[in-house]
Design goal:
heterodimer, A: mainly alpha, 7 helices, about 80% helix
Chain lengths: ~160, ~220
């Protein structure tokens, strides 16, 4: 068992390492989540909670960056699911009700894509991830990424034409 | 696979991402304060979602029940209230739950000033809740999930104009943000609206007047 002084040292060291990791990753993750959710507030909240999850097991993680990617993507995916369900219910009750918030053309076009396609586009074209990295982050086979991107690009070409 | 479109898309994604405003808060992470689990955040989101659902659902239940009751008197008119012509149309103007007394009163004045309208009455949120409890007596779980502050207050009245024209005129006239929904039902046989108060809400007198439920209706 570690002596108290050594434990404090280890904890302090972990906090310092985490602070460095946080500074390096935070803004990048928020921008990525922003592209996936379309909302600045939500992106910040999702990334914040993801960092808490990472911090809790920071000492045990070999690749905290990959784990953070996954947690953020899962947060965005959960949100997309909830929004889809809510939109469907609201549309059924009040057809033609305008959507809330400000959107631009790209955001609207991205919003029409299923979450996996949207995430694949953001990871590969914005975050410059390889197909392997995108597949790891999305927790899917590498072979799924290519078709998702192809379908997403076809839909975006149509939407943005 | 890089072509002009994907190059443009990449540039657009970067431009869009630059519009994000990161709000780093390392201390909150280190002290583990989740944002998405904060009660205020959750309840605000839940309210945003639940509110239109509750308004629409309750509006349908109460509006339908009132209109059905309005036309259901087959045994003669209610002796207590105004006797309406047989070709009367029943109209309901639902207001947003957040509508102030002053705004509700102003809308009531507008409705009263319309020619050919009668039996105006205001149903506040408490009265709407009482109606809901009565109409949904066999669905206590629905009643338990709704609080009076979610329900839309409404103005109810009859008019001699046909429902389509009445709805179009009202929609054009009532452009106030406080108006949530306007419903007019086709003419029935003997409309009898058991009015207990024809007075609009009084701003200075605190809560809006509570109206007895229409379900107590005419004597058979």
């Amino acid at each position: 068992m570690q002596k108290p002084a050594k434990r404090i040292e280890a904890v302090t060291s972990t906090r310092d390492e985490f602070a460095t990791f946080y500074a390096a990753e935070h803004d990048r993750q928020v921008r990525r989540a922003f592209l996936l959710t379309g909302s600045n507030e939500t992106a910040n909240d999702i990334v914040h909670d993801a960092f808490i999850a990472v911090y809790r097991r920071f000492a045990q993680l070999d690749h905290p960056g990959s784990y953070l990617n996954q947690v953020v993507l899962n947060g965005c995916r959960d949100l997309a699911r909830r929004q889809r369900r809510q939109t469907r219910l609201l549309d059924r009750l009040r057809p033609g009700s305008p959507a809330d918030g400000e959107h631009d053309v790209l955001d609207d076009a991205l919003a029409t894509l299923p979450f996996n396609q949207r995430a694949a586009v953001v990871l590969c074209f914005y975050a410059q991830c390889s197909h392997r990295e995108a597949a790891d982050a999305l927790g899917c086979p590498i072979g799924s990424i290519g078709p998702w991107i192809a379908r997403a690009l076809a839909a975006l070409r149509k939407e943005l034409a | 696979m890089t072509d002009r479109f994907t190059e443009q898309l990449t540039a657009d994604l970067h431009a869009r991402a630059r519009r994000a405003v990161p709000r780093p808060d390392l201390d909150a992470v280190l002290t583990a304060t989740p944002r998405l689990q904060r009660s205020s955040h959750t309840s605000r989101r839940a309210r945003r979602t639940r509110r239109p659902l509750a308004i629409a659902a309750v509006g349908l239940v109460l509006g339908g029940a009132w209109i059905a009751n309005h036309y259901s008197d087959r045994n003669g008119p209610d002796l207590v209230t105004t006797v309406a012509p047989t070709n009367a149309t029943a109209c309901i103007v639902f207001l947003e739950p957040s509508t102030t007394d002053t705004a509700a009163e102003a809308i009531g004045r507008t409705l009263r000033a319309r020619p050919g309208t009668f039996n105006h009455r205001y149903v506040d949120q408490r009265a709407a809740y009482a109606e809901l409890k009565e109409q949904m007596a066999d669905r206590p779980e629905v009643v338990a999930s709704i609080t009076p502050d979610l329900l839309p207050p409404s103005w109810r009245f009859s008019t001699t104009i046909d429902p389509v024209a009445a709805q179009a005129e009202l929609t054009a006239e009532l452009t106030d943000d406080a108006v949530f929904e306007i419903t007019c039902a086709p003419p029935g046989t003997t409309p009898a609206s058991p009015v207990t108060s024809n007075e609009p809400p009084v701003t200075s007198a605190g809560p809006l007047p509570t109206i007895r439920s229409t379900a107590t209706g005419p004597t058979r």
